[in-house]
């Protein structure tokens, strides 16, 4: 009720993407199908969008020991493979990537093209994390796993050709949330986060329970009405009250005015989670945390997937990569 008519306002490129989405996956955002069917629909719908794109010098799957068992990761080497880096005595900066999907959907395959594009544009080794999904794994498992992967890369990255002191987190949607949450978890629980130099945060949720954008936006085109968003949260946490009271879910409970990496924060004009990004950017700007905030006009949540067709997706990744290069240090 009282929603903005988003489909009449999105730009032509976004409209073309949604038409293609309907052709590929139909009602892939329909939460009434249940999370298991949604996972199948999500993976099937993303298969077209991950085709093509940059080729890597090496792409390899490994596992990292974590607090809840082994964590699968995928490493993307954009310019030289690991053996060539070792032979030359070189390391590259690293990006730990957490995929989106509301903590319930997504895997290494669904975000493969995004990771390849990011590796190609930054020149960094991207380490994509296949964290355990909800409802099988409940909060804070995903936060802990993403944080432990970064800690492992920090401590032993040389073995993978990565400079463990020049790391960033990146992520889209729930993955952006996990990147910032893992930074806070490292800072407060695992001995420090000083090696995290930069965050690339694409249209994340950072803890707002209610906002103007949540009231006005969201529909079948993105699967993020208030009821649908509540469905994701109920799968993510044993008690949704935790998501309001824990600093690793409601990230605005953390002191974001100190010991923060520089932040690239991208938002979508017609995203129900837009106000989370504007709130985070305002905090950074108010307290002198290095930050670049961009609002991509005419697009909806999850637009980053559509680099095959959508200019805004390519610009967001290019601008995030540019920000990374400027802030990763030497």
Give structural notes:
- 38% of the residues lie in helices and 18% in strands.
- With 330 residues, it is of the alpha/beta class.
- The chain has a single domain (6-327), classed as Rossmann fold (3-Layer(aba) Sandwich).
- Strands 1-2-4-3-5-6-7-8 form an eight-stranded mixed beta sheet, sandwiched between helices.
- Helix 4 packs across helix 11 and helix 5 (141-156) crosses helix 6 (174-189).
Strand order of the largest sheet: 1-2-4-3-5-6-7-8
CATH topology name, in short, is Rossmann fold
Low-confidence stretches: none
Distance between the termini: 51 Å
- Report the mean per-residue pLDDT as an integer: 96
CATH class: Alpha Beta
Number of separate domains: 1
Give the biggest sheet: 8 strands, mixed
What are the secondary-structure elements, in order, as H or E?
HHEEHEHEHEHEHHHEHEH
- Rg, nearest Å: 18 Å
CATH evolutionary superfamily: Alpha/Beta hydrolase fold, catalytic domain
Judging by the overall fold, what is the CATH architecture? 3-Layer(aba) Sandwich
The oligomeric state of the chains shown is: single chain
Report the principal-axis shape.
Answer: globular
Structural class: alpha/beta
Number of DSSP strand runs: 8
Helix proportion range: 25-40%
What fraction of the residues are assigned to beta strands by DSSP? 15-25%
Number of helices: 11
């Amino acid at each position: 009720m009282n929603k903005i008519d988003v489909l009449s306002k999105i730009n032509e490129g976004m409209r073309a993407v949604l038409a293609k989405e309907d052709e590929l996956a139909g009602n892939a955002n329909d939460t009434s199908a249940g999370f298991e069917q949604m996972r199948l629909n999500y993976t099937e719908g993303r298969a077209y969008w991950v085709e093509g794109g940059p080729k890597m010098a090496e792409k390899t799957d490994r596992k990292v020991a974590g607090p809840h068992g082994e964590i699968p990761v995928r490493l993307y080497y954009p310019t030289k493979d690991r053996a060539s880096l070792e032979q030359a005595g070189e390391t590259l900066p690293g990006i730990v990537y957490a995929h989106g999907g509301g903590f319930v959907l997504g895997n290494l395959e669904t975000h493969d093209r995004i990771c390849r594009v990011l590796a190609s544009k930054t020149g960094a080794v991207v380490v994509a994390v296949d964290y355990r999904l909800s409802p099988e794994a409940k909060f804070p498992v995903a936060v802990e796993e993403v944080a432990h992967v970064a800690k492992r890369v920090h401590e032993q990255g040389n073995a993978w050709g990565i400079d463990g002191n020049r790391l960033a987190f990146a992520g889209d949607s729930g993955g952006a949330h996990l990147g910032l949450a893992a930074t806070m978890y490292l800072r407060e629980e695992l001995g420090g986060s000083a090696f995290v130099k930069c965050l690339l945060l694409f249209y994340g949720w950072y803890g707002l329970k209610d906002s103007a954008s949540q009231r006005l936006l969201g529909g079948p085109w993105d699967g993020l009405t208030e009821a649908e968003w509540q469905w994701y949260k109920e799968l993510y946490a044993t008690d949704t009250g935790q998501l309001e009271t824990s600093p690793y879910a409601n990230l605005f409970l953390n002191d974001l005015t100190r010991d923060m990496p520089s932040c690239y924060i991208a938002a979508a004009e017609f995203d129900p989670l837009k106000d989370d990004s504007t709130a985070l950017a305002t905090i950074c700007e108010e307290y002198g945390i290095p930050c670049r905030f961009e609002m991509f006009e005419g697009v909806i949540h999850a637009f980053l997937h559509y680099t095959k067709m959508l200019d805004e997706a390519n610009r967001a990744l290019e601008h995030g990569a540019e920000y990374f290069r400027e802030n990763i240090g030497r």
